[in-house]
Target: Cytochrome b5
Amino acid sequence: MPTFTQEEVAKHTSEKDCWVIFKGKVYDVSEYLDDHPGGVEIITDLAGMDCTEDFEDTGHSEEAYDMFDEYYIGDLEGSTSDVVAPAPSGDAAAIKTTVTASNNASVEIKYDTGKPKTPNSGNDNGSVMIMAGAAVAVGAAAAFFLLRKKK
Model:
């Protein structure tokens, strides 16, 4: 699918050529305007802009959300809403993966598979306790030196 800039979408603001952005995706809703139960003006007031907040605040039905698929024409440049992370698999208690979007932004995702953690997996409570103890020790040392310096 093509990618559009905000500026490109903003050029489509008439009833005959009406585009909106919803959750980082671009939709040409021109053919839908006359069918909208709330009237044409509600949509044309948001033409060329992001309608996500207005749409969700109105309390639309699931059917209304599903209708977007029919009018989808591409993605908004820089949007990461189209990123789909791979589903976790295997026997691990947690799986990490990195997902990179079309704009080269990446995010690390950690899944908890709900499977029991095995001893020595590095995810047991002993590791957490060691880290917590180290944090307390560093904090106490910092406080000691800061208070000592004030005297």
About this structure: Strands lie at 3-4, 19-22, 25-28, 72-76, 94-100, 106-112. Confidence is low (pLDDT under 50) at residues 82-86, 117-122. Helices lie at 6-9, 40-44, 52-58, 62-71, 125-150.
